[in-house]
Design the sequence.
């Protein structure tokens, strides 16, 4: 029982990375009907930017230039990295997606893939092949609750990511910008007639998605402090799977599917040998899609949808 | 041509236009003969000529490996002009001059060939072309392997184009099909014809091997085709992004299954396949693949693929059996991907599951979309150009992975469906006299 609860905690942490990244896919999808295949690599860039900011702040503090407690460094790192990474997202949108808005959707998928490769290679060329380690900002404290070990990092990661998801949900449903996004997802043609700029909304969506990916990157760096340029590939594809599984363009669905994927992976590794993890996880995904072809919250294809 | 008018305008047209005017009258036969001549010239005087202009050996891939390698041109800057001179005089000049000189007789010969059955003239063209390729690749083993991998890439790209271009689905499963074909074909040859650490002693005499090899490839293709059912059956109910995920999941599942099967070596892979896939074998299979796929996409069933892509419901109303169409297309495409995988395994003579992952997928997708959707020409162009470019830019190390993606992004922005999209390969038109 304790073992199951322990894995439940691990799965919550693991799933929150997937969910945060899947949100970026899902938002872009809901308004542009395109998948941003560079998103996994934006996650990687976000982690590296977070690494740079955190290292810089730690160095400044240790030199005595500024006096900051560690938690404030973490908060500042998250905010600054979100801000910087959102520019990366906007750049990706401008280069890879805006010129292709009326092209076949697969072409945009290719540019996304290629931008991802450029980001990986650029990182490799700039920083070299050695892995970098994220500075430890939080002293790990372990609590024991009835045989289940929970670190303060895990609690922090799960609560921060759930907090961002709720904030996003509120932003999309309550704010005027969110209303514009929903309108654009609903009807792409009429929205410009209502005086809403498609380009601005698209740019904003990419910025928000990338900022969330940066949060995921920093949280990942806190949990697993070793970063390498190719870390985004696997996470990106798996989060893409989660975004589809949740139903196209559904924020709620992407969150749930992200957590579900985390749970599946952790529990498969608990019960079976860990080499079977991918096999069983993807078989489950395949079965879900066979019996529920539109994901959890997606709507079936219809003539209304732009294809 | 109207000669008087042409002469009067001759001085006013630009350089490129004049070159273009000289080229238009040359039939394919003359170009192939020109390539043959260039290969022969390289074989006869290549070494001497390279020595004369100060190159240590014949430039292997059109000099790209020399020109782009920093260590080489930092030490001896004369290498670059010499290489350019070599490439210009041995390839461009010889091909151009021979093709131009032979244009008139080749036109007459092509006219004669047109009167014969089509397959005879196609065989003659292919025979000459293969001879040229063989002589060209005789210079070094590196050329042979590059050529084989390029030919295999053509097969994979074409088979993916059937799904992604002609049927308009986004299939991510082709590395999985390749893996199935590669493992099945390797298993057949390893069980029957080699003494191997995984499957024990040979069952049949090794001399029989090359004759059974096509059968092994076909078995590989059939295994891949059966695997394709996993993707084809869900495609009845869903399409687009959901099907993309299903095919992606299929790819991961295949990779993971192979990694967990100790019988075929698990993650370590399977090696020491017999050397059956020599250049003529690969060439013949590639030609067969191009021929069959070209006929398939121009048949009624192939047109049904386009109908399913453009509007599934309308196609259904027009009596197209969409289920059968999708099933056949997936299995057909997977068959050829499996055959290509089998050839790949016997060219590299080693397979492991890591080869058939996301990287391979990105590579194949890039070739399809770079070359052009819905077109056989496009697939050939995409596979050949990206494969050769990948080899030629090898000296640039990681910057290769910046240059190639940037190029692809530019192609996608300016020609979103690829370089040569929506173009039929009509053999008669290709080989007719000009």
Sequence:
């Amino acid at each position: 029982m304790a073992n199951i609860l322990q894995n439940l905690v691990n799965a919550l942490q693991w799933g929150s990375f997937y969910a945060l990244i899947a949100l970026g896919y899902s938002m872009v999808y809901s308004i542009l009907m395109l998948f941003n295949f560079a998103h996994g690599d934006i996650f990687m860039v976000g982690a590296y930017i977070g690494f740079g900011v955190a290292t810089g702040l730690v160095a400044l503090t240790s030199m005595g230039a500024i006096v900051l407690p560690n938690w404030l460094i973490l908060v500042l790192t998250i905010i600054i990295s979100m801000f910087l990474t959102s520019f990366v997202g906007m750049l990706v949108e401008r280069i890879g997606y805006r010129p292709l808005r009326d092209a076949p959707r697969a072409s945009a998928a290719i540019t996304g893939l290629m931008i991802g490769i450029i980001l990986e290679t650029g990182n490799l060329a700039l920083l070299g092949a050695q892995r970098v380690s994220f500075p430890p900002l939080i002293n790990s404290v372990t609590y024991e609750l009835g045989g289940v070990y929970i670190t303060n990092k895990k609690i922090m990661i799960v609560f921060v990511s759930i907090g961002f998801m709720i904030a996003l949900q509120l932003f999309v449903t309550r704010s005027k910008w969110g209303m514009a996004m929903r309108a654009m997802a609903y009807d792409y043609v009429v929205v410009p007639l209502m005086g809403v700029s498609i380009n601005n909304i698209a740019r904003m969506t990419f910025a928000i998605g990338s900022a969330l990916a940066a949060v995921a990157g920093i949280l990942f760096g806190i949990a697993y402090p070793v970063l390498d340029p190719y870390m985004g590939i696997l996470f990106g594809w798996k989060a893409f799977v989660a975004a589809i599984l949740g139903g196209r363009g559904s924020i709620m669905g992407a969150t749930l599917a992200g957590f579900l994927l985390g749970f599946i992976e952790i529990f498969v590794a608990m019960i079976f040998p860990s080499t079977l993890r991918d096999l069983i996880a993807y078989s489950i995904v395949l079965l879900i899609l066979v019996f529920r072809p539109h994901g959890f919250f997606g709507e079936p294809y219809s003539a209304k949808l732009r294809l | 041509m109207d000669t008087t008018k042409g002469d009067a305008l001759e001085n006013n047209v630009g350089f490129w236009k004049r070159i273009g005017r000289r080229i238009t009258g040359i039939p394919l036969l003359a170009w192939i003969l020109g390539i043959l001549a260039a290969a022969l010239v390289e074989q006869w005087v290549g070494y001497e000529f390279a020595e004369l202009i100060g190159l240590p050996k014949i430039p292997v891939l059109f000099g790209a490996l020399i020109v782009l390698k920093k260590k080489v041109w930092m030490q001896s800057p004369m290498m670059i002009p010499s290489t350019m001179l070599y490439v210009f005089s041995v390839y461009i000049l010889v091909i151009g001059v021979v093709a131009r000189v032979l244009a008139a007789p080749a036109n007459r010969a092509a006219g004669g060939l047109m009167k014969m059955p089509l397959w005879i003239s196609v065989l003659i063209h292919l025979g000459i072309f293969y001879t040229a390729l063989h002589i060209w690749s005789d210079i070094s083993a590196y050329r042979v392997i590059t050529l084989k991998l390029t030919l295999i890439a053509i097969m994979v790209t074409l088979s993916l184009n059937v799904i992604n271009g002609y049927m308009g689905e986004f299939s991510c499963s082709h590395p999985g099909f390749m893996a199935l074909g590669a493992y099945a074909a390797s298993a057949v040859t390893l069980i029957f014809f080699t003494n191997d650490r995984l499957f024990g002693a040979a069952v049949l005499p090794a001399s029989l091997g090359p004759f059974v090899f096509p059968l092994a490839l076909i078995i590989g293709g059939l295994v891949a085709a059966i695997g394709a059912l996993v993707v084809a059956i869900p495609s009845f109910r869903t399409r687009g992004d959901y099907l993309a995920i299903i095919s992606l999941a299929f790819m991961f599942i295949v990779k993971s299954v192979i990694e967990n099967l100790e019988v075929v070596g698990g993650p370590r892979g399977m090696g020491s396949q017999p050397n059956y896939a020599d250049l003529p074998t690969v060439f013949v299979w590639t030609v067969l693949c191009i021929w069959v796929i070209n006929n398939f996409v121009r048949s009624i069933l192939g047109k049904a693929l386009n109908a399913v892509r453009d509007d599934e419901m309308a196609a259904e109303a027009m009596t197209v059996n969409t289920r059968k169409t999708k099933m056949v297309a997936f299995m057909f495409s997977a068959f050829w991907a499996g055959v290509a995988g089998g050839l790949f395994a016997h060219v590299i003579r080693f397979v492991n599951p890591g080869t058939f992952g996301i990287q391979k997928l990105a590579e194949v997708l890039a070739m399809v979309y770079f070359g052009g959707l819905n077109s056989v020409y496009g697939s050939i162009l995409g596979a050949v150009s990206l494969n050769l470019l990948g080899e030629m830019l090898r000296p640039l190390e990681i910057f290769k992975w910046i240059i190639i993606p940037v190029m692809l992004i530019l192609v996608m922005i300016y020609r979103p469906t690829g370089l040569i999209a929506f173009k039929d390969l009509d053999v008669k038109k290709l080989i007719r006299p000009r």
